[in-house]
Design goal:
Number of helices: 7
Helix content: 25-40%
CATH architecture: Alpha-Beta Complex
Largest sheet: 9 strands, mixed
Shape: globular
Distance between the termini: 28 Å
Radius of gyration: 19 Å
CATH class: Alpha Beta
CATH topology: Transposase Inhibitor Protein From Tn5, Chain A, domain 1
Strand content: 25-35%
Oligomer: single chain
Length: 232
């Protein structure tokens, strides 16, 4: 596979996406999309990848990705560009919900998703400022302070957060940590839905070390990913 990538010319990014979507039957069924970023280092070189994937049977399937020419988080502009490219090719009709971790929060980002009619389930930090039942801003964890390990709570009504209205749910994990999820629409199963996001972590594990070993082959990584550089 590495020799094929090394010896072949640039493959059209959209062609690859269509091949993947058809191969796994995603053109004929509804699905969850998930975003995440992974990075590793080869010597002094940073490999930093923003990945858009489809949840599938315990592992996410990559469709579009962006090799970030920097360290750290992706920008709102980069996220919108990547998702726009997917929507341009495949539309939004079959997307059940968009899933992402705490890195993918922001007023402009949430506003764009809601403006596009894309529902989401995104984890938020426990110290994120949201409105309580009286409309006063407090840290999100204060709204779920009574939860015991294993308990969940879905708040009634929308709450203001990062300039947008979202619906909040939370689970107290066994170690006492709060898992707080924001959704664009009321959702009684937001926690269970968000848990599907973990499948992209399984994907990253397979790409880096369990099978593909891309973490050991930086030149191959660049060959595979460089076509995404023209995205923005």
């Amino acid at each position: 596979m590495q020799r094929f990538i090394s010896d072949s010319g640039a493959v059209g990014f959209d062609r690859v996406a269509w091949f993947v979507m058809k191969l796994f039957g995603f053109l004929d069924t509804d699905y969850y999309l998930t975003f995440d970023r992974t990075n590793w280092q080869w010597g002094k070189k940073d490999i930093n990848v923003l990945m858009l994937a489809v949840v599938y049977k315990g592992i996410a399937i990559p469709v579009y990705w962006l090799l970030l020419n920097k360290q750290g988080n992706s920008s709102t502009r980069e996220r919108i560009a990547l998702l726009k490219r997917f929507v341009r090719e495949f539309g939004k009709g079959r997307t059940i919900k968009f899933l992402a971790d705490r890195e993918f929060v922001g007023e402009k980002w949430f506003g764009w998703l809601q403006g596009e009619g894309i529902d989401f389930a995104v984890r938020v930090k426990k110290n994120t400022r949201v409105t309580n039942g009286r409309g006063c801003f407090v840290q999100a964890r204060q709204l779920f302070r009574t939860l015991k390990p294993g308990e969940t709570l879905v708040l009634a009504g929308a709450r203001k957060m990062t300039g947008t209205a979202v619906y909040l749910s939370a689970l107290r994990l066994d170690d006492g940590e709060l898992l707080i999820v924001a959704t664009a629409k009321p959702s009684v199963d937001a926690i269970e839905t968000y848990a599907l996001r973990w499948q992209i972590e399984t994907l990253f594990g397979c790409l880096k070390s369990r099978g593909f070993n891309l973490a050991m082959s930086p030149l191959v990584v660049e060959k595979i990913l460089c076509s995404a550089q023209s995205l923005i």
